[in-house]
Amino acid sequence: MESEYTLYEQQTSRQLKRWEIRLHKLPNLVERASKSMQTGINNLIPDKVHTTITATVKGIIQTTLFGINYIPAQGPLQGLSLADRDAKAQELLALYKKIAAAEGAGTGAGGILLGLADFPILIGIKLKFLFELAHVYGYSTKDYRERLFILYVFQLAFSSHEKKPELLLTIKNWRSVADTFPPAEAYMDQVDWKQLQQEYRDTIDFRKMLQLVPGIGAVVGAWANYGLLEELGVAGMNCFRLRWLQDKAKPKKL
C-alpha cells in the first residue's frame, strides 16, 4: 500500500504504526495503581451521583454532536495534500490549546464553583476542535456518521488502556462500521454513557482535582487544559490521518 503514497505519506504511515503500538502497550505500575484507586473511588460514589454526572455528559455530547452550532461555517477542505492538512491541523490545535488554557486559568482562579463549571465547558471546547479538525481533513460534519466518528475519537483520547484497542479497531474499520449504523437517534441510545463518563473522568481526574486547590487553581487549570487538548490533538490528527490514507488507497465507490 505504501508504494501508492508520497514520501511524506509513507513517513506518516510509519508514524501511525508506531502510535498504534504505543496504544496497545500495557499500562505501567503507576498507571495501574492510579486506575485501581480511581475504580475504588468510583465504587464509593452513590449511584445517584453517577446518574447525575452521566446525564450531564450525555446531554452535553448529544447537544454538541446533533446540534448545528458546532458545524464549521467553512466546508471541508478539498484538494489539499496530507502535508498541507497536517500543517493546518497543527495551527488549529495551537489555537485551541490557547483557548483551553485561558478557559482553565479563568475558571481555576474562580474557586470551586467555577472550577466545577470548567468540566462541561472543556468538553465543548474539545468537541468544537474535533468538528473543525474533521473539516481540515476533508470530512463534512453535516453527515451524522462523521459526528459519530468524532465521538469515537473523543473516547479513544480519554479512555483506559483496556478500551483503546477496541476503539482503535472501530476507527480503523470505520468505512464498514459506519454502513451498519442505525439512524443517529437510535444509535445514541446504544452508547454506554456511564462507562464513557467514568473513563473520561478517570483520565482527567488528577489534573482537574488540582485545579480546585486554592492559590494554584489558575496555573493548574491552564496547564491541565493545555495538556488535555494536546492529547486530544494527537489522537484526533492520527485518527483522521489514518482515514485519509485509507481513503487514498481505496477511494470510495460512487
TrEMBL record:
| Superkingdom of source | Bacteria
Q: What is this protein called?
A: ABC transporter-associated protein EcsC
Task: Please name the taxonomic classification of the source.
Answer: Bacteria, Bacillati, Bacillota, Bacilli, Bacillales
